[in-house]
Design goal:
By secondary structure, this protein is mainly alpha-helical. It is built from two helices and two strands.
């Protein structure tokens, strides 16, 4: 093991039965999952904003139609 470069020796170290490489890979997977959740969160927020805008537009149209109907 002494002939290995330091970074390889460090990568093979184990903490509680888990190697640094495994911890790093798990961290990369967690980071990727978090990024995906953030993208989904942003898409969901945008869809909610669009839905609220449509509801408000339809309410305004309904009010206009009701006002016009009451004036006749």
């Amino acid at each position: 093991m002494e002939s290995m470069p330091l970074y390889q020796r460090e990568a093979k170290l184990r903490f509680g039965g888990v190697s640094i490489e495994e911890i790093g890979e798990e961290r990369r997977r967690a980071d990727a999952a978090l990024a995906e959740v953030e993208r989904e969160k942003a898409a969901s927020a945008m869809a909610a904003e669009e839905a609220m805008a449509m509801i408000q537009r339809l309410q305004r149209e309904k009010n206009s139609i009701e006002i016009a109907a009451n004036q006749q």
